[in-house]
Amino acid sequence: QVQLAESGGGLVQTGASLRLSCAASGRTFSSYTMGWFRQGLGKEREFVAGDSWNGGSTDYADSVQGRFTFARDNAKKTVDLQMNSLGPEDTEVYYCAVSNRLRARRARDYAYWGQGTQVPVSS
């Protein structure tokens, strides 16, 4: 079983940057595909960014491409999400998640989830 804990959320203004971090437990972190998702009130949980456990490509949602950067550190068992040029449309609760699939971009493909961290962006 894997436990995840996100941190780094908080209120920011439009145009600001924020770095989210997710710390994972478990001895086989390097063999998991990791992903970041976000969910707003009344919305479905949507894919933001994610990698593949074999070190393959990192994918981003079109809405964050060029602004967000996914970074993984297997030694520290962490995965970060650097978010730049934030806007009100990025106001969501952000979750990190673990998948056993090689490449997973749907929420239903992820088995373990963190508790989420809120990122309110004021205009």
What would your notes on this structure say?
By secondary structure, this protein is an all-beta fold. Helices cover 0% and strands 44% of the residues. The chain has no helices and twelve strands. Strands 4, 5, 6, 9, 10 and 11 form a six-stranded antiparallel beta sheet that branches. Strands 1-3-8-7 form a four-stranded antiparallel beta sheet, with no helix packed on it. It is globular and about 40 Å long.
Fill in the keyword field for this structure.
6-stranded antiparallel β-sheet; 4-stranded antiparallel β-sheet; mainly beta; 123 residues
Task: Characterize this entry briefly.
The protein is built from no helices and 12 strands. It is mainly beta. It is globular.
Portion in helices: under 10%
**How would you spell out the order of helices and strands?**
EEEEEEEEEEEE
The chain-level structural class is mainly beta
Unreliable stretches covering 5 or more consecutive residues: none
**What share of residues are in beta strands?**
35-45%
User: What radius of gyration results from the CA coordinates?
Assistant: 13 Å
Mean pLDDT: 95
Number of DSSP strand runs = 12
Shape: globular
Provide a count of the helices.
Answer: 0
The oligomerization state is single chain
C-alpha termini separation: 40 Å
Q: Characterize the main sheet.
A: 6 strands, antiparallel
List the topology elements.
Layout lengths: L3 E4 L4 E2 L4 E7 L8 E7 L6 E5 L8 E2 L7 E6 L4 E6 L8 E8 L12 E2 L3 E3 L1 E2 L1
Parallel strand pairs: 2-12
Antiparallel strand pairs: 1-3, 3-8, 4-5, 4-9, 5-6, 7-8, 9-10, 9-11
